[in-house]
Target: MFS transporter
Amino acid sequence: METKLWGPFLYRDYRVLWTILVFGSIVVWMRILSTAQWLLDETGSAYLVGLIGVVQLIVQIPATLWAGTLADRANRKHLITVAHGITGITLLSLGLLDLKGVLTPSMIYLGIAITAGTHMLASPARSALIPIIIPENKLLLATSTDTASQNGA
Model:
């Protein structure tokens, strides 16, 4: 049995899911870089920039514990849609607050907490969809592509 590298991309649902993964990862990295830069520019404090990791960790640990269960019990497509929607609204709000000149470090940390939580909630739902939309003989390649894309984006 010959496996082509693009095998999973022959399935429309996988292409859509993969596109969401790549854009979601890009948004996460843009959020990480922009919030860190904003904190450094506005406060000049490397300590406050370092707190980004602490805030993310505090949110991600409990979110990870519940995300898999939620992905098993809820509609996975809706879960991903809601998570990305909340992320988008949060980041748009941070941008608008910055444009108005009223953005504060505590608002940044709240935005980081929300987006870290929504990212962790969407991740198991996305992973659980792959075996549903890809045949078993292409599952290993699809999962590998998913992981590599997430790490590379």
In short: The chain has a mean pLDDT of 89. The chain has one domain: 28-135. Residues 28-135 form one domain.
